[in-house]
Design brief:
single chain; 375 residues; alpha/beta; TIM Barrel; six-stranded parallel beta sheet; three-stranded parallel beta sheet; 40% helix; globular; binds zinc ion
Amino acid sequence: MQKSLAAALTLVTVACSQPPDVKAPSTPARATHAAPAPLQATDPLAELLGAQPEATRFPLLPAAEPASPRACLEASTSLGSAGLYRTDPWSKGEVVLTFDDGPHPTATPRVLDQLAAHELPATFFVVGRAINRDTYRLVQRVVDEGHTLGSHSYSHDVNMTKVGAPEATVETIVGQHAVTAMLIDISLVATSGDDFDDMFEQVFERDPAAWLPAHKIRDSFETYAARHRDLLDARGYDDDQRPYDVLYSRPPGGGPYVQTDGAAGRALYDQALRRLNMMNVMWHGASGDTVPDKRSDFAFLTSNMEKYSKSGGVLLVHDYMRSDALAHALADMAEGGVKVVPLADAAVRKVACPAPGNALPSALAGLPFASSTGG
Ligand SMILES: [Zn+2]
């Protein structure tokens, strides 16, 4: 995933709005992630053809290759500037749930418990520097429970596109998301806190108890990537395989897509996304849990959640949202006819890629007789 490069400059790290550190989680130990399950495993023809004997199937049909969001995105011409934005049209009452700024030792388990209670899918945009020996199991838990992981950068610097010279800015953004994706991988293969720390030291050559400085990430992420590759090879991930394919990212604070630094900042960010092969995910509505003086206001939080659930779209929440308000909002969605869909569904729709269940027409279009007749 990481392409080439190197450059220089200094990055100002802005304190993010994560809650104060609390005690380590008590999530149970779990088995190592051997190899990732494919994102989509549905045979698009199975339902139509499954009951028929082998000989009656279309002989020319290629082996069914299920459409994955990444395959769809990379087949589209818009990858890199492809993303989900506030201006996207959306079906009323259909929501993608996203949680930012985790993993957090106590807040993230509560969110996961509440999602499980209502069987709702969500995406967690994790901050690289929040992933450590005390939280890596939560990264595992997110995947185990069927949710999606995305990168919310390593340092949570909301001014990433204001670093300086254009090339250095792009390097900064690429490094931030690339390192977070590495930490996701390390989390998923770690068998213990000590194992996590050993891998961290091996890849980053720094004390795992300290954060990586942003300027080191910008200058060294390719070196990290090479060591990360060696690590994965040693753990049995051959042929450029990784434990997790991080496809989605979200800029801290919305970055240049929200701030007023205009088209120049967005162009640099888009350039970084193309290098990363990641899709940008913004939001249509938010819980309001970052609004000063209102973040603990139960009525404010729940009314926002209700309003934006009804209007539909990507909904921005933070792991640390007031827990009883989140519970109330999720119960309302589950019982109130709001359709909560996985991010992948919205992503493939945005780039007009056939969803796995609709893959038959495109599969037939690829057949020789179909193309020779101009169909
Ligand atoms: Zn954030």
